[in-house]
Amino acid sequence: MAVLALSAAVVIGASGGIGAALHEALVEEAAYARIHALSRSGAAPIDITDEASIAAAAARIATGPAPSLVILATGLLHDAERGPEKSYREFDPAWLEQVLRVNAVGPALVAKHLLPLMPKQGRTVFAVLSARIGSISDNRLGGWYGYRMAKAALNQLVRTLSIEEKRRNDRSIVVGLHPGTVDTALSKPFQGNVRPGTLFTPDRAASQLLDVIDGLTVTDSGKLFDFEGKEVAP
């Protein structure tokens, strides 16, 4: 990764498995003047479901170097009581709203407050962790309604943001990233179905994602890429 000593990087969700690994990898690369590691439980807390919290975090970031890299490494698939739906008979409005709020509305609010802080010139990357499951054309198994809906909405958000952001900075890149199945709390209940050799450690996932980010060009903006840098169909 090229040295960007006068700019900052932001990792939101830095207390999670992938987020923490991304933060550690960026620190090791030492390519940024400052790295903001934000999470709900961190010293500088952020709650992406609370716009006031996001605005406060943006105000703190604005006091230092402008961020040329923002990575949103957050997501909700299940909690202690509820998980992805296998059938429409399991629809719970409150749960659907929560999944959409965390996976799609939250990232939209983060974009609202952080994109204006990014430079108007030069290469910038605003990346969100999405998932192949949000691809409509790739949906062959059904189920997991709320998560599929939320990630599809997130992928549309990425596409739409990329169009508007290009008007502000023609070298901006807004992308979704599919990290694969990573050994974290989010995937833990479903790891029994993972093929051997396809369950990644957080460190490996972070390294792969940063390699993908490093290889992106402006023509990639608005798209979803997997951990190998291959575009995922909408």
Automatic annotation (TrEMBL):
SUPFAM superfamilies xrefs: NAD(P)-binding Rossmann-fold domains
Task: Name the Pfam families on file.
Answer: adh_short_C2 (PF13561)
Transmembrane parts of this sequence: none
GO MF terms listed in the record are: oxidoreductase activity
List, alphabetically, the InterPro entries matched. Answer: Fungal_SecMetab_SDRs, NAD(P)-bd_dom_sf, SDR_fam
**Gene Ontology cellular component annotations, sorted alphabetically:** cytoplasm
This one is known as Short-chain dehydrogenase
* Protein's organism: Sphingomonas taxi
